[in-house]
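Reply to dn_fold:

You asked what the input looked like. This is it:
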Amino acid sequence: MLNAVKVLKEGGLILYPTDTIWGIGCDATNEEAIEKVFKLKQRSKEKNLILLVESEKRLQDLVEVSALAWELIDISQKPMTIIYENPKNLPYNLISEDHTIGIRLTKDEFCKQLISKLNKPLVSTSANISGEASPKNFSSISPLILEGVDYIINLRHEEEKEYKASSIIKLSIDGKIKIIRE
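and this is what came back:
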């Protein structure tokens, strides 16, 4: 894990298992690293990236979390990404045109430790080229992605369990809920 943290602090990209699917990650406060993610994925900058945080405090450092958001986080049975309005303390190239950001408070122990040691939020985007299917497990990750990252976490490579992407819910300040992905 220390090697991964070192790579992240130096602006590199990692390939890592999350509480959902395998992801490409970088320090979410590093504009250049974020640009590398878009380039590797061949992804339009209009398509947003999401963040993982390990604690309620870090989440509150980035967005205003409504009582409704806390309720949804508490009752969710599966990983859930919430799109929040008006993020703060994040680079411009991470924030969408409508001034929102998707963030997931991870429950995965490995991810929590990694983010805690980095002491910054972590970009988490599926480990695939934009437009291609998300990998269901490590063995289905494209060679282009494997070769394009700076460090691969040596964990859960043999798992054949099929991972699924998180639910995505957009919350507006006025309390409206929009389900983006179930």
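The helical segments are 2-9, 31-41, 56-62, 67-75, 109-118, 143-148.
Hope that clears it up.
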